[in-house]
Amino acid sequence: FKHIIEIHTLQDHQKIKHSLIFLISILYKEKMELEDQKKFFHGTLEITIFDATPFSPSFPFNCIFTKPKPAYVTIKINKKKVAKTSSEHDRVWNQTFQILCAHPIADTTVTITLKTQCSVLGRFRISAEQILTSDPAIINGFFSLIAENGSTKPNLKLKFMMWFRPAYLEPGWCQSLEGQSFQGIRNASFPQRSNCRVVLYQDAHHRATFDPRVHDVSSNARNLWEDVYKAIESARHLVYIAGWALNPNLVLVREEETEIPHAVGVTIGELLKRKAHEGVAVRVMLWSDETSLPMIKNKGLMRTNDQTAFAYFRDTNVVCRLCPRSHKQLPTAFAHHQKTITVDTRVTNTNNKEREIMSFLGGFDLCDGRYDTEEHSLFRTLGTRDGFYQTSVAGAKLSRGGPREPWHDCHTCVVGGAAWDVLKNFEQRWTKQCNPSVLVNTSGIKNLVNRTGPVTEEEDDRKWNVQVLRSIDHVSATEMPRGLPVEKSVHDGYVAAIRKAERFIYIENQYFMGSCDHWENKNDKYE
After folding, report:
1. What CATH code is carried by the domain that includes residue 133?
2. 13 DSSP 8-state letter
3. Do 436 and 287 fall within a single domain?
4. Lipid metabolism: present as a keyword of the record (predicted)?
């Protein structure tokens, strides 16, 4: 109220009115936060699984079963599995999980289960309300497990520690960014990297007049596919491409007004074969759509051109591999959706011959229908070179006058430590599902440097902090963080960004399925 009294001496009634509204909004926000605390289990549940009672069969089974079966622990919130340890014969794990929660308190239960591959050994259940009211706040110790029939198993105990940190206690973005205290998302394979150069892209191409202003400063918007062409063309040692789809007949540069007129009309397949012929290691890793059946000329449900690309690069110096998204329950329902390009490039602002890693990543595949501008015309661009693509309007064809399907997406180019992380991700995936012997040993490239130190005054554009996030599991990549079977740092990044928001939340995405597990009816649709 001090602020209100001070401005009252100025007899500024309008400011008094605004200040009162501001004060009321703060009080209302605090009231709603308190109400939400009573209704929602909203925050981070941290659980460390230490160890369990060693395997000790009784007579006469101890004469038969001398070696314990590997055991593991799962954590569920209600019926949804949210974490799983590794399988260990000695039942010692020492693994920690940060589980992001936003669940109604009234009907939320956390279940910790000790299992082997063949059986459930025991469970421990605790309600969200018990966790919130626990005294002390940290639940720590050896706990007896409950058998399937509901009886207690006093000779089988699990040691774990559990504590809950409410979301409202987490600092917002203003506080997190002051003094660079924000260190990135935990539990990710790759840490936050400093001193990176970043170029942001909107759409595959844009008109010359496109100049969105950021704080009244020109954005110097660049053309994504032209930059991709130049990056691949200038590579001397490696070109690594991971994608959901790739059409080798795709043309990257289509406009006559371009920085690289010699590239107009050149297909991505021609460019990659040329670089491979020059001695550059060109490796292409695409998702194998198992519905693509070349024997019967079926292009597959998703029309990714995976078989077309594989056949195109056969008997060339380009090594192209198709990788299925393995899943034991639904082998055809999941896809590899990463879209990355990694090349070596000349170090800028120097006169020497040093080279460094440059990586592109984001939402664009090198495939049909992606070439579009900020105008997103449905009819005026039907004549775009082999660019007609339509999956949303039944019966729409080029011969019928369209309409074409517009395509809006974003992408980025990174140079610095984060670009090396994109390279590492490619190597981990290739090593898991392809032949690692055809990868380039980057440590053997003498003039290839990884610049992690401070930047010079001339490199003002290398002041970005970047962290590479991903969604992946141990079936698709090697060297998972802390030996865990799944990494979900993309999800964790979304949650962290939303929780830290203080004034607005803007989400633009192709898919959004937030909290669908809480819908009263699985058929409900919220528009």
Report:
1. 2.60.40.150
2. H
3. yes
4. yes
**Residue 205, token pair as written in the block:** 């191409």
pTM to 2 decimals? Answer: 0.86
Question: What digits encode the pLDDT tens for the residues 457-503?
Answer: 667 788 899 999 999 999 999 998 877 788 999 999 999 999 999 99
d(CA 332, CA 289): 8
At residue 429, what are phi and psi to the nearest 5 degrees? -70, -45
Sequence-distant contacts of 257-264: CB under 8 A, at least 24 apart:
257/208, 258/223, 258/226, 259/226, 259/230, 260/226, 260/229, 260/230, 260/233, 263/226, 263/229, 263/230, 263/233
d(CA 139, CA 128): 13
Contact 173, 161 (CB under 8 A): no
In total, the chain counts a number of residues equal to 527
Residue with tokens 């920085």: 259
When divided into structural domains, the chain yields a total of 3
Find the domain containing 32 and state its range: 2-38
Question: What pLDDT, in 10s, does the model give residues 120-175?
Answer: 999 999 999 999 999 989 999 999 999 999 999 999 999 999 999 999 999 999 98
User: Dmax over Cα atoms in the chain, in whole Å?
Assistant: 92
395-445 pLDDT per residue, tens:
888 888 889 889 999 999 999 999 999 999 999 999 999 999 999 999 999
Question: Is residue 158 domain-shared with residue 218, that is, in the same domain?
Answer: no
